[in-house]
Structure formats: structure tokens, C-alpha cells
Design a protein that fits this description.
disordered N terminus, 434 Repressor (Amino-terminal Domain), alpha/beta, 18% strand, 14 helices, 2 domains
């Protein structure tokens, strides 16, 4: 998830950083056409690569300027980068064939064969803010990890970037399938681009992507999948929906406007997959009921959505549904449980959990609950708290370079 207030800061600071990077390194213009591939959408297997389109390039100085422009430590930047949009075959939330897109980033230089980082992003509402879209800030960590010397696969998820249909926000299972199939497509793309990738995967992600990281790690750990998980480093993930994140909406741990944004997105998206309501007016008060579903059509930016919604969950929800969120029951409780438990397994690789004590988007209790889940399976995961001043945005800024350094140490 991504704090809407902080998103504006990322975008403002990011625009200046990109301008500076363009001067120093030059952002390559996208190619006129995609690199052709052998697969066709109609006959493609899951993870089949459908197209590769160059979308950008920076030299080493350009990457360092881009990263530093966000206030992020650029100490791990050792290479320039080349970035590509991949279009690939996957399945939707109902298991039907569809396509998705993602950002594939390669370092300029370094070893010929590259290990692979899976970098899963936080909450976005506009499809162009996805990593391969390039309109937002979600290329920051893929560029950072590629400049550190690894290939990076950053899925857009379903319905974002160039994907089809609405984004099934909060549906962990389909986020995992889209992320896994992006890794498969990335291996093919690496071969086609002359930079093959190994079986080794280092998994990280921020906020919504932190939860996806842990769930994806479990999938990568299953035998016969073709990958070898090496490390897990989720940042500020909403791992504990039932015990921490959903309760935080009504008990004050999540900032009210942030809670309104996340909750509205979650309920409208989940209603497409599960029968939460027949009419938005059952859940949302007037005048918001008539607008909530259209606000999350992929064509509205977070600032627009927040401006169109009320300031508190009490103003957003009908009394019955406010109580349902405060103490979930029925189909809502089923939906929450179905998307919970990302940490309830036993990784056989090192795990570090990055968090911030002042996070009012994803309270630190989520990370502590994840560590407790892992401990019940005999796994001791180190919690890296970025400090009492670390809100959601600051946690991501401080954590990502630390993750890159940790991956370096794990990979030795």
C-alpha cells in the first residue's frame, strides 16, 4: 500500500530527480515497436513472453541522480540500467487466460548471467503509475536493484500498466500468479536480450508488495517451479489483515484519510470477486455510493480519488458496514481470511522484515505478527525498524538500499 499524502511527495521529488537524471544520463525514448516474440496470446502458456518493448535507460550517474533525488542512499549504484516493458500470458483472478505487463530491468555491465530480483510494488490506482507505465515513482526500486548488479522483474499486477480489466486489489492469489508468471517471462526476455538470468530469486516488495513478497516466496519454495528462492525482504507489508490492518481502520492506528482510500479500493475490488454487496448504497453513504466504483477504474490518480472521498471511515460507510469493518462477519470476514496468512509458512531462506514505528498506513503490528507467524514454524526473522520517525514513505526510502546491500551479502 502507498500513503496518498506521501505519494504526492514521491511524485514531486521524482519529477525533479528524473529531470536531473535525464541531463546526466539520458532517459532513452521508447522504441517505436516491441521486439517480436514467438508466442501468441491465443496459444500462450502461463508466463509466455508476448512482447518486449524498451522503455528507458540511464547511465550510472543518471541512476545515482534519480535515486538521490528521492533522498535515497545511492551507495549501491554500480551500473547504468536498461528497462523494458514485458507483456506476458497469465491468468486472471478466476483462473482464465489473460495478459499482464511488468518492468524488466537489466544492469549495464556486471556478470553475463544475472541473478533475479522480484520487486513487487505498493498500492496504486492509475494504471500508468505501474512500474512499466513510467508515470509514477514505481521504477525507483527496480532501477536501484538493477544498478546494484541484478536483473529485476517488477510486475504491474493484473489490470495495471498495460494489463486488461480492472485491478483485483487485495486479491493475494492473483497478485502471486501475476508475479510468478512475470518471473517466467523475465527469464525468456533475458535470453532474448543476451543477458540470461539464473534460477536464483531474491524477493522484495513494499507495502501491498511486501505482503505479495511473502506469499510469492511460499510459491517459489514449492518443488518443481524452476526457481530457487534465496532471500525474502518485504518492506512494510500488511501481513496481518485480521489482527492489525483491518482493526487499524477503526481504532485510529491508520490515518483516517488513508483508511478511507484503502478501504474503498479494497471493498469495491473484492466485490467483483465475492458477493459483498449488490448495490454500493448498502455499504457507502450518499453521495459517495454513486461514485466509488468509477473512481477505481484505473483512470484516476490517488489525489483525485482522495479529494472525492470523505475524511473518515465513519463518513464513508453506512452504520451497519462501519460495524462490519470494526468486527468483520459474513462474506467480509471470509474475504479477509482468504487474503491473510502470507507469513504462515516455513521459509528455508533468510528473512528480514523492514518496518517503521511511525507508519500510519501499515502499522508495525503487521510486521510483528508476521515475525510471530514465522517463529511458530521455527523461523527467526530479523525485524529492521527504521525508527520512531519512520512513516510509511520513510520506511521505504530507508529500507530499499539496505535490502540491496543485504542481498549482496546473501549472494556471496
Amino acid at each position: 500500500m502507498t500513503n496518498t499524502r506521501m505519494s504526492k511527495r514521491w511524485l514531486r521529488r521524482g519529477a525533479a530527480a528524473v529531470a536531473l537524471a535525464a541531463v546526466l544520463g539520458g532517459i532513452a525514448a521508447p522504441a517505436a515497436s516491441a521486439v517480436p516474440t514467438a508466442a501468441s496470446q491465443g496459444s500462450a502458456q502461463r508466463g509466455a513472453l508476448l512482447s518486449v518493448t524498451p522503455v528507458g535507460a540511464l547511465d550510472r550517474a543518471g541512476v545515482a541522480a534519480y535515486v538521490s533525488g528521492f533522498g535515497m542512499d545511492a551507495g549501491t549504484v554500480r551500473h547504468g540500467i536498461s528497462a523494458y516493458r514485458l507483456t506476458y500470458a497469465t491468468v486472471d483472478a478466476q483462473g482464465r487466460p489473460t495478459t499482464a505487463t511488468g518492468l524488466f530491468v537489466l544492469p549495464e555491465g556486471g556478470p553475463h548471467r544475472l541473478d533475479l530480483v522480484s520487486d513487487t510494488h505498493g498500492t496504486i490506482a492509475h494504471h500508468d503509475d505501474a512500474p512499466s507505465g513510467g508515470a509514477g515513482y514505481n521504477r525507483l526500486t527496480p532501477y536501484l536493484h538493477a544498478a546494484s548488479g541484478r536483473a529485476v522483474a517488477a510486475p504491474d499486477y493484473l489490470g495495471l500498466g498495460g494489463g486488461t480489466g480492472p485491478h483485483p486489489y487485495g486479491d493475494t492469489a492473483s497478485s502471486v500468479t501475476a508475479s510468478l508468471d512475470m518471473l517466467r517471462a523475465a527469464r525468456t526476455a533475458g535470453d532474448r536480450l543476451g543477458r540470461p538470468v539464473t534460477r536464483d530469486v531474491y524477493a522484495t516488495g513494499f507495502s501491498q508488495g511486501g505482503q505479495v513478497t511473502m506469499a510469492l516466496g511460499r510459491e517459489l519454495s514449492r518443488p518443481g517451479g524452476g526457481f530457487r528462492l534465496r532471500a525474502l525482504a518485504p518492506m512494510a507489508g500488511p501481513f496481518d489483515l485480521s489482527g492489525s490492518e483491518i482493526p487499524g481502520i477503526t481504532d485510529g492506528r491508520i490515518a483516517p484519510r488513508t483508511a478511507v482510500f484503502y478501504l474503498t479500493y479494497f471493498l469495491t475490488a473484492q466485490n467483483r470477486l465475492h458477493p459483498l454487496y449488490k448495490d454500493p448504497a448498502e455499504v457507502f453513504r450518499a453521495p459517495y455510493a454513486q461514485a466509488v466504483e468509477s473512481l477505481f477504474d484505473g483512470n484516476h490518480h490517488e489525489e483525485e480519488i482522495v479529494a472525492a472521498l470523505p475524511a473518515t471511515p465513519q463518513e464513508l460507510l453506512t452504520p451497519e458496514w462501519y460495524e462490519n469493518v470494526r468486527a468483520p462477519r459474513g462474506e467480509l470476514r471470509t474475504v479477509i481470511k482468504a487474503n491473510d496468512g502470507a507469513c504462515d509458512w516455513k521459509p528455508a531462506v533468510p528473512v528480514r522484515l523492514y518496518t517503521g514505528s511511525a507508519d500510519t498506513d501499515v502499522p508495525i503490528a503487521n510486521t510483528r505478527a508476521c515475525a510471530a507467524d514465522l517463529a511458530r514454524h521455527g523461523v527467526r526473522a530479523r525485524i529492521v525498524d527504521q525508527g520512531p520517525d519512520a512513516d510509511h514513505f520513510t520506511t521505504g526510502m530507508r529500507s530499499a538500499p539496505q535490502v540491496a546491500r543485504w542481498f549482496d551479502s546473501v549472494g556471496r
